[in-house]
Structures are given as C-alpha cells and as structure tokens.
Amino acid sequence: MNPSIATVTLGESLPCRITAAAKAGFKGIELFDTDLEAFGADAKAIRRMIGDAGMNVASYFPLREVEGVPAEARQATRDRAAAYFDRAAELGAPMVMMCSATDEGLSSDRSLILDDLAHLAEMARARGLRLAYEALSWGCHMFDYRDAAKLVSEIRHPNFGLVLDSFHIFARGNPLDEITDIPAEHIFLVQVSDAPRLNLSYLDWSRSHRTLPGRGSFDLQAFTTKVRATGYDGVFSLECFSDELGAEKAQSVAEIGYAALNGLWSAKDD
After folding, report:
1. Distances in Å between the alpha carbon of 148 and those of 26, 155, 229?
2. Could you count the other beta carbons within 10 Å of the beta carbon of residue 103?
3. For residue 269, what pLDDT is reported?
4. Contacts (Cβ under 8 Å, ≥6 apart) of 120
5. What is the DSSP letter of 218?
6. Within 10 A of 243 (CB to CB), how many other CB atoms are there?
7. What is the pTM of this model?
8. Biggest alpha carbon distance in the chain?
9. pLDDT at residue 115 above 70?
10. Cβ burial, residue 78 (10 Å; 0-12/13-18/19+)
C-alpha cells in the first residue's frame, strides 16, 4: 500500500507539513485545495517541494457540487471542473477526489447524475487523471458507500472509482461486510480517521472532530481488514479534520499517525 496523509491532518505551514510527513515516512500527500490556496505558491513549486521531499502527490481534493447540475449551469460547472483537473495535472497528481453533492438544489435524477459523472470521468481521462468519488455522510442524495459503489459499477469507466472513507461509513452506521463485495479495481482511494461519538450534525462532527486511529470510537481494524480482503493495495491515507490536531506540532502528529496507519494495515487477521 501507499501510506499517505492529507494536508488537513497537520497544523503549521504547508512546507512544514510536507517536511513532517516525509520525515515520518509517508510516501504520498493528499493536497487539500484550501491549503494550497492559503500558501499562495504556484502548483509547480508545490510539486517540486513534494518531490524534493521524496514523496508523491496522491490526490488533489475535493471537487464539489458537480453532479445533478441543471442544464443552465452545466457548462459553467464543467468549465470549473476542467480548471480543477488542470490544476491537479500541474501538481502531478494522478487523481482528483470528488465529493457527493450537498446542495439540495441539485437534481437527484439518477440518469442525470450518471451522465454528469461519466462526462467528468472522461474529462479526467483526457488529462491522464483518475476521478475518485466519495459519498459524504451529509450528502443530499448520495451518502452511503454502497450506493456510491453501485454508481461506479454502472458508469463502468476505467478512470472513475470509489473512495472508502472510514469517517463517513462509521458516522452513518453503515455495515462493513459489503466492502468485501467491491472489486479492488473499483476502489481508487481509502481514507482513514477515527472520531469520538458526539451529538453533532455529520458536517460539524466531520469538520472539527476527526482524530488519529486509536483516539476515537471507530473499529478501524475491522474496517481495514475488510478493505484488505478486497485485494486493494493502493493509497491508504490519513485524513483528519481536527482543531485539536491542528494545534499540535506537525512532526509529532505525522509520526504518531504514520505508526497508527501502518499498524492498521500490517495487523494480522484473526
């Protein structure tokens, strides 16, 4: 597997996060678009910085609100997606991660959603990118990984695949057993975070309270065991949106996170 970390997991400046991740042993970085914009450097400079640290860009994320788009907004939305893909290509990212729609104004019409996603997948292919789809726990029409997996199977595009994110799966209480029914080649990205059980909206819970494996209430070993049973051996990424982690030293969080992530992957099945 490719042990990776999302820039949102770490605090301090973006160069500090990159250095900390590399020193901890991570091989890949998932670049959060807001972190890139806040730093202000051009994409090629960030690409060099990550390469000089001995890492690769695992993904650029998240592309949002691009499915079920009304006809009058479709071209503008696709132009926005094109610009996003172009930035990902500049960064040297092989993959863009996209989120399921959260805007209630977007259509739930399945045929329209399939058409939009298939078109986006082809746009990604034309730039040498893969497009990884995540069912957000607060998505308005798509919030269950099993439904997202069905979309991938229906679209049947080699550049369109699935994100399995532990937070969204456990937050919704989705069963883990059906993960093993997903073909490994349909899974493009696996993101891992723990979290305490809190009485919050999915959005508020997700944005500030995800934490490192072992610090929350999720059975991440069971999740990882199911993922490995599919035969998946790709990007396995630590993605924690956390006010608490953001206040800690990036190097310490990266080292603890790397050990926890590798511990999950290397644990022997009972």
Report:
1. 28, 11, 19
2. 13
3. 58
4. 66, 67, 78, 81, 98, 131, 160
5. -
6. 10
7. 0.96
8. 54
9. yes
10. middle
Report d(CA 70, CA 189) in Å as an integer.
29
The closest alpha carbon to 207, from 81, 34, 43, belongs to 34
The three-class DSSP label of residue 185 is helix
Distance CA 150, CA 239 (A): 24
What whole-number percentage of the chain has pLDDT above 90?
Answer: 96
Average pLDDT over residues 208-216: 96
Of 165, 70, 84, nearest in space to 120 by CA: 84
Token pair of 127 as six digits: 């730039």
Alpha helices in the chain (DSSP H): 14-24, 33-39, 43-52, 71-91, 110-126, 145-155, 166-172, 202-209, 220-229, 243-246, 250-266
Alpha carbon dihedral 195, 217, 17, 1, in 10-degree steps, equals: -120
CA distances from 220 to 59, 169, 195 (A): 22, 11, 10
Report d(CA 62, CA 46) in Å as an integer: 17
The answer on pLDDT for 106 being more than 60 is: yes
What angle (nearest 5°) sits at the alpha carbon of residue 133, between those of residues 2 and 17? 45
CB 137 within 8 A of CB 167: yes
Q: What is the DSSP letter of 59?
A: E
pLDDT tier for residue 40 given thresholds of 50, 70 and 90 = confident
Q: Average the pLDDT over 46-65 and give the result.
A: 97
pLDDT at residue 42 in the model: 87
Structural domains in the chain plus CATH codes: 2-266 (3.20.20.150)
For tokens 């679209």, name the residue.
Answer: 155
